[in-house]
Design a protein that fits this description.
The structure is a single chain. This protein is mostly helical and 386 residues long. 82% of the residues lie in helices and 0% in strands. It is globular and about 60 Å long. The N and C termini lie far apart (45 Å).
């Protein structure tokens, strides 16, 4: 449960909420098709990643170093660069969420929330605390989104029809959703948590597979509920604020109560993203030989560095966020190449496990898509540089 929700809530951050809202306003009910297609592609990626790492009992950086010495540290460097900048944005998001939820000054809200995240990694039972917090906040977000979706009275029939007969198909939207759900460090967050908890080896394939699929489904449910909540407001003819479209939609749906609900969801999404990004980034910078106490101390240090940078910069500059997003676009195809190579050629790393041909073939198809995503990311870096 902890691994599933760590992955899901890591994906559901401030960017996820803003992105889903924007695409719903842009595509209307047709966005349902993009959600379904992205979920299917996400499942193909995550089933391969979780199965290879889970069966091998290795983290992605350890597996990459075994396949090609030094490659794991290249992955770690990319994850660190992206995680550092995005975590500054996540911390900024906790401040905005606390402001909408309780009226706190955003900076004070960010500091208090960061302190809460630090405590999670300082207590003796940090592993159990991590699992319980992300599961609890994940369930809270689903419940609140469900309530607001019901309140906004969305045209569910139109949404269902568009899942199979879309009025409009936008390939860029679909690839953006895939990158935002399993790109960068996100898909590794739950897989590394599973490895750290000892649920590994061929004997646990069924558990690993079930966890990987349910993790994506949980993320999909969150996106679908948010989509329906916004769609109901848009279909009702409401004019949303350009400054904060998501908050405006929740306020239209349920008044001041809806605005507070949005604050809770946004704060919880940002907090769990801080936790997920910090945990996963440090897991890439260490090996399983490092003691949990040292790893937790490093995670606390990472959160505090991000908080200090947030207080100095105010927020992550747009240029840095673009660079970090581009890094995430490179991490997915690079890391996924290692996963598929291990599944195809390194049976010795899988403890003799015979990898399913159908799953490998499905992974290769999605891998081609991740290559395209990586090329787009590199082009983005080139354009920004020039």
């Amino acid at each position: 449960m902890g691994a599933m929700f760590l992955m899901a809530t890591s994906a559901v951050g401030p960017g996820f909420i803003t992105q889903t809202t924007s695409f719903t306003v842009q595509l209307g009910a047709a966005f349902a098709f993009a959600i379904v297609i992205s979920i299917l592609a996400d499942i193909a990626v995550q089933m391969n990643v979780w199965r290879v790492l889970g069966v091998s009992g290795l983290r992605a950086n350890e597996l990459a170093n075994t396949v090609l010495p030094g490659l794991g540290w290249v992955l770690a460097l990319l994850v660190f660069a992206g995680g550092l900048v995005f975590n500054i944005g996540n911390i900024a998001g906790t401040g905005l969420g606390a402001n909408a939820m309780l009226g706190l000054d955003p900076t004070l809200g960010a500091v208090i929330t960061s302190a809460f995240a630090v405590v999670i990694f300082l207590v003796k039972w940090a592993g159990a605390a991590l699992d319980r917090v992300v599961v609890g906040l994940g369930v809270l977000m689903i419940a609140l989104m469900l309530w607001v979706a019901f309140t906004s009275n969305p045209p569910v029939g139109d949404a269902l029809r568009n899942t199979v007969l879309p009025e409009k198909i936008d390939a860029l939207v679909i690839t953006t959703l895939i990158g935002g759900t399993v790109g960068g460090y996100i898909t590794y967050a739950g897989a590394h948590r599973l490895v750290d908890s000892g649920v590994t080896g061929p004997e646990n394939v069924r558990t690993i597979t079930r966890s990987s699929v349910i993790g994506i489904i949980v993320t999909g449910v969150m996106r679908a509920l948010l989509f329906l909540a916004i769609l109901g407001v848009v279909a009702g003819g409401a004019v949303l604020s350009a400054d904060n479209t998501a908050a405006s939609a929740f306020e239209h749906a349920a008044g001041q109560v809806g605005l507070r609900m949005f604050g809770i969801i946004f704060w919880a999404a940002a907090l769990t993203s801080v936790i997920g990004a910090s945990y996963t980034t440090v897991s890439f910078l260490t090996t399983q030989k490092v003691r949990p106490r040292v790893r937790n101390a490093m995670t606390v240090g990472f959160i505090l560095v991000c908080l200090v940078l947030f207080l100095v910069l105010g927020q992550a500059p747009q240029t840095l966020l673009i660079f970090a997003g581009a890094f995430n676009g490179v991490i997915l195809p690079l890391g996924f190449t290692v996963i598929l190579w291990a599944a195809w050629r390194r049976r010795d790393l899988l403890q003799g496990y015979t990898y399913p041909v159908w799953l490998l073939a499905l992974g290769v198809l999605v891998w081609l898509l991740t290559i395209w995503l990586g090329v787009q990311a590199l082009q983005g870096i080139g354009e920004l540089w020039t």
